[in-house]
Amino acid sequence: MEEQISTPRKEHFADEAVNQNDVYVAGLAEARTTSGKPVRRDISPLSMVALGFNICNSWTAIATAFAIAISAAGTFNLIYGILIVTVAYAGVALTLAELASVYPTAGGQYHFTSILAPERSSRALSYICGITATYSWVFMSAAITLFAAEVLIAFPQFYIESYVSKAWHTFLVYQALNFVVLLYNLLALKRATWTHEIGFFLTLLTFITVSITCLARSTKASSSFVWDNFENNTGWDGGVAFLTGLVTPASMFLGLDGALHLADECLQPERTVPKALITTTVIGFVTGFVFAIAMCYGITDFDVLINDSLPIYPLWRQAIKNDTAATIFLVATLGVLLFAINAIQQTASRMTWALANDKGIVFSKYLSRIHPTLEVPVWALLANAFVVLVVGCIYLGSVIAFNAIIGTSIILQVFSFAMPAALLLFRRRSSAVLPPQRAFKLPTWLGYTVNILTVVTAIVEIIFYDFPPALPVTGSSMNYAVAVLGGTAILAGVNWLIYAGKHYAGPRIVFDS
């Protein structure tokens, strides 16, 4: 097999020759800045796993979006939804892990798409995948920052009777959190990579403490309520209600691709990244499933939870029967969310930086730079934080429209996963693109299964996560994800017309048998 780099951006690939059975495992080189200086590889395997889990933070995702699932179809939707979604995203993780073991770069799925796609359509398909993934990360950053702001606002809401929360209060807290975490990413994170490990152990400790305490202290709901309670309050038929309610379990794995985009900064990425993807999925399922069961057994007043803006807080007060303990748990959750925002900002900036390195975004000349002293992509961090700031302004105009962003982030993310999976199937998992000597290898039958599962998962989520959550549809019950998707498509098109269409060149390998 003869291999040839056909892109002018040769810095993505190693200079040394590879033998006929290697497809640039040794060949995906250190990502470089515009000055040619390599990024320092200083993220250990443990830090990579910690970062990946800090982003997904499955049990916290369940806690913050608890009301969506149980209002759609009761506890049944949450418990069994987690099982179904975990199977689907295990397929995604295995698909990405196999590709990352061959092509470990910060571009992740859009680099996979660029390499796997037919030459004639490579630029267009990889650009669509790259801009989609970049949007998903910025929207995810906005959504998690809002969750943290709502947690912080919950304290005065509970303890000060005269306090009435206003949208602008949450907006100001949101912007403050965005700014503070940005400063940490700019000035401290590269010199304190152990930050992710602290967040990892904090979230596991909080998960264990909260779950055990709630199970020990709560007046247990009946097992039939937990395992058989299918309450359809949506107006849709049962099947549609169940599928639309899966957005909460799916949020457990939002940001699953985080490890991909730090590949240029970790040691032995062809081995470390696949391990991080799989470990994140396993830990995410265990923590998310156990937490969901523990919380469902602690429910004593279902209606209170549905009508509360942050239902996990009254649920903890119900289950533990101690306001102070519930507040301490909420403080710990806020800390966990801050670590999550920190990891998401870091990873989102690397996604933007990677796309800028391939000249896929306007102002790529600046966004692709690594600061020589801070050793981070300063302009990419600032640009992402600015977009998060602007997106936050939507919250002032419409809380409902802003809430559509979390669903949009999931849709965009899974779409970006499906593109390389579909191209792998198109290539029939040829040994030309998946060499036998790769660091992570699935049996052929399992490889086809997880690739198909990834594509099917994307189709289901793209369709049903655009549905309004309830019928009849009104201005307050509308799902604005379609509008957000339309807006992102227009912006992506404009970016292509004025810049990327003339300059974008993703990595390319031509395989000749």
From TrEMBL:
Its main location: membrane. Signal peptide: none annotated. Gene3D superfamilies: Amino acid/polyamine transporter I (1.20.1740.10). InterPro entries: AA/rel_permease1 (IPR002293). The chain crosses the membrane at residues 46-72, 78-103, 124-155, 167-187, 199-218, 238-256, 277-300, 324-344, 378-398, 404-425, 445-465, 477-499. The keyword NADP does not apply. Keywords: Membrane, Transmembrane, Transmembrane helix, Transport. It comes from the Eukaryota. GO terms for cellular component: membrane. It is a multi-pass membrane protein. It is found in: Membrane. GO terms for molecular function: transmembrane transporter activity. This is Choline transport protein. It comes from Capronia coronata CBS 617.96.
